[in-house]
Amino acid sequence: MPFAAALSEHPLATHAVGEVVGQVLEELGEEPDLAVLFATAPHVGALEDIVGAVRAVLRPGRLLGASAVSVLGGAREVEETAAVSLWAARLGDRPAPPRPVRLTVTRESELDLEGRLLGLPDDVGDARSLLLLADPFSFPTTGVLDAVRVAHPDLQVVGGLASAARGPGGNRLVLDGTLHHDGAVGVLLDQEVAPRAVVSQGCRPIGEPFTVTRAERNVLYELGGRPALDRLMEILDGLPAEDRALAARGLFCGIVVDETKLEYERGDFLVRGVLGGDREAGAVAVGDVVEVGATVQFQVRDAVAADEDLRAVLEGATGDAALVFTCNGRGTPMFGVPDHDAEVISDALGTAAVSGMFCAGELGPVGGRSFLHTFTASVAVFRDRPGGRPTTAR
Questions:
Q1: Which of 347, 371, 384 shows the shortest CA–CA distance to 195?
Q2: How many alpha carbons lie under 13 Å from residue 179 in its C-beta half-sphere?
Q3: The pLDDT value given to residue 224
Q4: What is the predicted pLDDT for the residue at 390?
């Protein structure tokens, strides 16, 4: 199997990196094409040494990484304590090697919608996937995703925002032997090895879908020809008590991405929060711009819905490894038990070659377009490809 993942909870960085590198070497051998490293806040001060050890001993062709509040490896999640997670892959001999990407855009005003200021090559060739790790305090992620969509419409973006720090300059991003504290880093993957991206937004629709008949930016004034707030209140009044309680704790709006569909199911909605209502105007504000003519459906989220949604989007999925970017609001705070996402994903794919981080925002495609999400699990599922080099495990 050309994939391996390892997790260490040792509080000493030297021991932790020794454990994860040793396990990957045993399972996969040295010189993988790509290695991805995640480390929690207690190891940030030693991250330069950790990176140096991984590069010196494992010798990956390309190394990508980030600091995070919590990490996962295999079927385990380690939340808010010292941990290092390492993932590695052999991608075969035929595809182009992973190409490094370093993005330093700090303001949306700097963006060139044709992509020339993004740090991406003008021609991405056969690349179909960009694994991207970004700093939430210095990188205009939504604007960059919009620009990438225009410049490279066939390029899916999967990844997450570093989450180890509570302020600017505290996160670390890794690209090969260099550590960065701002912007974003990533790798472009050839179409032959590009992962399948699976995004679980963890919500359950309530009521019926409506066409937006009047709106201004992120404010819905009319749904199906009636005041949006009236529509919403009718839905809430008709809910069972448990769903009304969920809505009181947090209400969401699902925006249909592909309007060519006649029926809508999981994965067709871009989920955004409901920010509030205006009784005088009969309006509802949501967390994204909504165009007139779009279809929306209100949603609720809880642990049960999040569990069902993750299992549903993974149903029938096949893969040999995965990189997981899950929200730092999930884990034990959402599910009440540890290891939820890691266990579900490992079990669904039947592999222990799973690694990832808890993010301050997750990146992944919905309806063929890549977005920034919250409270989601964005999963890059990799499959073995023939023609890979034999392992040299020792």
A1: 384
A2: 21
A3: 94
A4: 36
Reported pTM:
0.89
pLDDT at position 114: 54
Q: Given this model, what pLDDT does residue 389 score? A: 42
pLDDT of the residue at 387: 45
| Below-50 pLDDT ranges, the chain | 387-394
**273: nearest Cα among 294, 255, 287:** 287
Letter string b/e over residues 276-301, b meaning 16 or more CB atoms within 10 A of that residue's CB:
ebeeeebbbbbeeebeeebbbbbbbb
| Exposure string over 109-123, b if 16+ CB within 10 A, otherwise e | eebeeebeebbbeee
The predicted structure's pLDDT at residue 115: 53
**What pairing do the DSSP bridges indicate for beta strands 63-68 and 34-40?**
parallel
Cα separation, 90 vs 31, in Å, equals: 8
CA–CA separation, 328 and 360 (whole Å): 6
Which ranges of 100-199 does DSSP label H, i.e. alpha helix? 141-151
Give the count of beta carbons closer than 10 Å to the beta carbon of residue 223: 26
Q: Which parts of the chain fold into alpha helices (H)?
A: 13-28, 47-53, 141-151, 228-237, 241-249, 303-314, 331-335, 340-349
Give me the pLDDT at residue 392, please. Answer: 32
- Name the token pair of 248: 């009181």
- Helices assigned H by DSSP within 252-352: 303-314, 331-335, 340-349
Burial 330-349 (b: 16+ CB within 10 A, else e): bbeebbeeebbbbbbbbebb
Bridge-based pairing of strands 295-301 and 70-73 is unpaired
What span, in angstroms and rounded, lies between the C-alpha atoms of 326 and 73? 12
